[in-house]
Design goal:
24 helices, alpha+beta, transmembrane, 603 residues, membrane, three-stranded antiparallel β-sheet, transmembrane helix, five-stranded mixed β-sheet, Glycosyltransferase RgtA/B/C/D-like domain-containing protein
Length: 603
Amino acid sequence: MKNKAGIYFLILAPIIAFYIFVYKNAFNIGWNDDWHGIEGFLASWMQQTTFWEKITLLFSQMCEHRIIYVRLSTLLCYNLFGEVNYKILMLMGVSYLLILPFVFYRLLKEINVGLAYLVPIIFIVFNTQPIENIFWAITSLQPNVVIIFGLWGFGLLLFNKKAWAFYLANVLFFVAMFTNGNGMFSFLAAIPVILYARTKSEKIQFAAIVAFSFWLYFHNFQKPGIRPDVMVNITQFPHIIVADFFAFFGSPIDSTVQVYNITVKHTVAIIMGLLMIGWLAVMLFTFLYYRFYPKAKKNMHNWFYRLYNKLMQYPKFNLYLLAAFIFVGLSGAAFAASRASQGIEQAFASRYKTVSLIMFIILYLSTFNILPASRWKNYLRISIIAGLLFNLFSYYESWDDVENRRRFFGTTILNWKNNGRYYYYAFENSRNPDDHAPITQYQRLPIPPFNYAGFVPGIMKYVNDILWISRVHFKNYTPPAEIDVMNKALYENQVASTGGEAVKITDGFNTFRIELANVFVPFGTRYDGYYAIFTNDKNRLAFPLETQANKFTNFLSTQRFYNNQIDAIVAKPDIPSGQFSMKIGKLENNQFKVIKEQTISIQ
């Protein structure tokens, strides 16, 4: 790696590719928590009259979190651009990833290696697996930012003796804590760093800051009823907690990219997580044993004692890895304990993968403790090749997810545009007049409830109240021009299909199950694909029929990116009551080719 130009290319190319990918695919549209967490907050902010009311709102609970950084980012975006622009908010969230190369480069200087050793870290950090970060503003500004601020703070405490670095680190930990619940672990993970690197006065100040932060966070804290009880999870689902914990960290090695078998996917992730955590635990216990057990035999012929000596050779380097390991490990443990009853598949949610990817970086860096310096260059070459393949494979894995999300969000905007509301919830209790009536007048909103509306009856009226206030006060919600093109194609440019697709529709109690065979969707199209549309005199709704990408083994044998089967569900509560014409067809070249049509009735 003597060629500096080559090194800079390997560092800059994945960063530039990542941000081009984000910019091209991110949508200026909210999703899920965004409505109450961002627009609901801003609508409420404008209705609070006193300074104390605004501060109370800023620190108010949302679910089990306090999300002050999300709210400050919302205010900043609105005051700078005059609107809540979700694409800007998502770009703000992923822009903080640019902090990490500087943090890890400073760490690498502790073991006296050059810039080339940063390259594998770049491939891991600027990875598209956390795909929800570019479709869900809150997740981009919440778990993403928390981890970055914590890692930045550890570096400030260890590598800068100035007082401002101490206070900035504590501000970062405080903001992390009040952005996502696991941010509080940054304070706990920093304790070994504080004890080693900071003055007596700073240690006392740190203790006071921690005490105040925890008091403020839990002052008047209410347990959200929408979340499973952690103690119930611990007593009833301990085996799932353990599986979730290891699968959480092994999830970036998603074996379903290669095969369809879910059991294989879970097993591979758990084994990978177990190996990573196991190795890092061996390093930690080796250090603790020789450092604090006076009777430990210190024999250089013992591999563990040689490992201990290597750890002590680079104290700041390994202390940073320890803090990062504690922070990320506790975050994963909290996730597993809180989500166990919801099933192991939660461990693969893309919004959490930034946390998991940091564990891969810790693993990469920890390996320098067992390799002789003479082999570091060979290890670097292997790491660059592995990191490059991992990075490229993340684009392959996430591409169809991006396209399906674009289709989903496109039809969501279209349904809002055509029906005077945004979207419906597929719950039995959503068959409620308030939930399906278009909002036509301004209504005053309270501070969003901490047990937020997303899981209680009346959610759609609440969301559409927010939308109305948003239109009136701080956003015009003009759909992108491409949505108008899709609207015309779906409802006006209809032709009979001449393809060979076969359709089967099963009318269930609360759903329509739609199965298609012999389908074909070109790779890389924006909205082309299969849809179910429902029309009558009052309503026009469209639902994408998600096409699943072929896994790697099938792709090699068929050379087709998408599978030729569709098995999709359309929930009846997503459709207003009445009689509809239901058409199943394919959108292609700005035409909707109708494969099957029938009349259905929604009660």
